[in-house]
Design a protein that fits this description.
Elements: H1 2-22, H2 35-54, H3 58-91, H4 97-128, H5 131-158
Helix pairs in contact: 2-5, 3-4, 4-5
Length: 171
């Protein structure tokens, strides 16, 4: 019973995340943007942010970026697989409980693989550089997420809505 509750809560969380990202609309006064183009912009900002925050020497950069690119490639592949499973699951209304359970198991396996990839990358950073570099990388990732959230909030405030979507009441 406890496993089913955990699986259901994981499913609801994943469903919420994917439905929010799937329904995201361009901001007021901003032209619609191709998702791929926006993704590329965010990726460029992420790389620039990491470069600035980690302040690599030339040698460090030559060692770091191939490792980083391999990890990011693996994350993208696993993320695309997870997204496809969730889209397939959300696409139909009448799913058998066994189908939902199988899909959730597959998503859980992918989540474990993602966690393993992040852990392996941190260990690789520690063995290639040192523990301080691994900590700095994690902190830079957190800083990037904060910067992105701040940018989204500021963009929303310019439209007079903050980070909230129009039509949403307070709970």
């Amino acid at each position: 019973m406890k496993i089913k509750i955990i699986a259901l809560s994981f499913f609801v969380t994943s469903l919420t995340f994917f439905s929010l990202t799937a329904r995201a609309q361009p901001g007021q006064g901003h032209p619609p943007n191709d998702g791929g183009e926006r993704s590329e912009q965010v990726e460029k900002f992420y790389i620039a942010y990491l470069t600035q925050e980690l302040d690599f020497s030339t040698e460090e950069a030559q060692q770091f970026w191939p490792l980083f690119n391999a990890m990011e490639g693996e994350k993208k592949t696993l993320g695309a697989e997870r997204k496809q499973i969730m889209e397939d699951l959300m696409g139909g209304k009448n799913h058998k409980a066994s189908d939902v359970e199988t899909a959730l198991d597959r998503v859980h396996v992918i989540e474990v693989k993602l966690a393993d990839a992040r852990r392996a990358f941190a260990q690789l950073l520690m063995s290639t550089f040192d523990a301080e570099m691994a900590v700095n990388f994690i902190e830079a990732q957190k800083g990037f997420r904060r910067a992105m959230l701040n940018a989204v909030n500021q963009r929303g405030k310019k439209g007079g809505q903050g980070a909230r979507r129009p039509g949403r009441g307070q709970r």
